Amino acid sequence: MSNPFGGYGPMDRNNGGFIGAGPTRKSYGTDNSAGASSGYGGTSDAGIGSSTNVVPLTNDSTTTTSDVEVGATAEVGQGLTERERMLMRKEEELKRREAKVGLAEREIKALTPNWPCKQYALEYHDIDEEIPPAKRPIMKRLYLNVLLTFAALLINWIAMLGIWFSGDQSGPSYTLWGTMYLLGIPGAWKMWYRPIYFAYRDKATLSYFCFLMSFAAHCFFSVVMALGLPNCAAGGLMTMVQQFAVGNPKAGFMTFLSMLAWIGVAGLSILNIKKVQNEWGKEGVDMTSITEQLRNEVRDQLVPQVASAVARRV
Questions:
Q1: Residues in Cβ contact with 153 at an 8 Å cutoff, skipping those fewer than 6 apart
Q2: Alpha carbons 197 and 203: distance in angstroms, whole number
Q3: What b/e string do you get for 171-198 counting C-beta neighbours within 10 Å, with b at 16 or more?
Q4: CA–CA dist 33, 20 (Å, integer)
Q5: d(Cα 292, Cα 52) in Å, to the nearest integer?
Q6: pTM
Q7: pLDDT of res. 80
């Protein structure tokens, strides 16, 4: 069929376009991408006609894209989960390293004594640095307790010395109260103060048990000293009455001060031991659990060590 518009190519009856258009033919394929892709002239009718072939491809493409997006989302979710796990592992590793560094710093500080003073330091002691914040109040009360014990021992020693120089030889010998003073200060520090210090610092139940036994004996000792029982080198109530009765007011006054000091020590010690027992009791630590832990320690550590020592000897 000839072209009525002056072209030279035959007309395509299916879509109204021309095949092999002549010089006077204008193409509109640039205005419709569908028509351009079909290879025809590019009129609006051609674009519509070609849409019947494009729609199925578009649906397939959409389905495929959705599948890819879902898969990518799953992969991203897995990637985030793995990243979180990696971050958690790194955080745990950092915590372990910080704990090791803290332990090393504490060991270094422990090797640098600062108590009782820097000039004559004997060992490291720092409540604010080593004791947990919740335990610092009771620990400071116990520290006051041990300092007051030191002061009471010193006042008692001066009172006994005054009685001795006053010419009263009926009391205990200077060897007894001198030994009591020299051993009492390190004994109080080592026997009950340091154990409870380590118990709060390290949450050590066995150290608490050692404190409990030693501090109970300390409470009994303080009461005896406050009463001033005869022949006990105690500058307490009975000794004060005796010194005033024999006309020795200076020694009587010193024993009066000693009595007040021991009353303070005894009262504070009784309050502190009750406070400490209540705190550890709230944490589930009692004599039953302590006995069980001691039994386990003996079974797991002491018995193997003794067996190993016997085996080496044999």
A1: 180, 181, 184, 185, 188
A2: 10
A3: bbeeeebeebbeebeebbbebbbbbbbb
A4: 19
A5: 87
A6: 0.63
A7: 62
pLDDT digits (tens, 9 = 90+) for 41-69: 444 444 444 444 444 444 444 444 445 45
When computed from its CA atoms, the radius of gyration of the chain, rounded to whole angstroms, is 47
Do 240 and 287 form a contact (C-beta atoms < 8 A)? Answer: no
| Residue 244: closest CA among 228, 231, 233 | 228
Residue carrying structure tokens 């050692």: 210
For residue 67 the two structure tokens come to: 């599948």
pLDDT in tens, the chain (314 residues): 444 444 444 444 444 444 444 444 444 344 444 433 334 444 444 444 444 444 444 444 444 444 545 454 444 445 568 888 888 888 888 988 888 887 777 777 666 888 998 888 889 999 998 999 999 999 999 999 999 999 999 999 999 888 888 876 666 666 777 788 889 999 999 999 999 999 999 988 889 999 999 999 999 999 999 999 888 888 899 999 999 998 889 989 999 999 999 999 999 999 999 999 999 988 888 778 878 877 787 777 777 777 888 888 77
Report the DSSP beta bridge partners of residue 115.
123
Euclidean distance between CA atoms 294 and 289, whole angstroms? 9
Assigned token pair, 241? 């009455």
- Whole-angstrom distance, CA of residue 50 vs CA of residue 7: 23
Q: Are 3 and 18 in contact (CB under 8 A)?
A: yes
Coil, strand or helix at 226? helix
Burial of 303 (0-12, 13-18, 19+ CB in 10 A): exposed
Which residues, in sequence order, are CB contacts of 283 under 8 Å at separation 6+?
none
Angle, alpha carbons 144-148-151 (nearest 5°): 145
Helix (H, G, I), strand (E, B) or coil at 123: strand
CA 161 to CA 119: how far, in whole Å? 29
Max CA pair span of the chain: 156
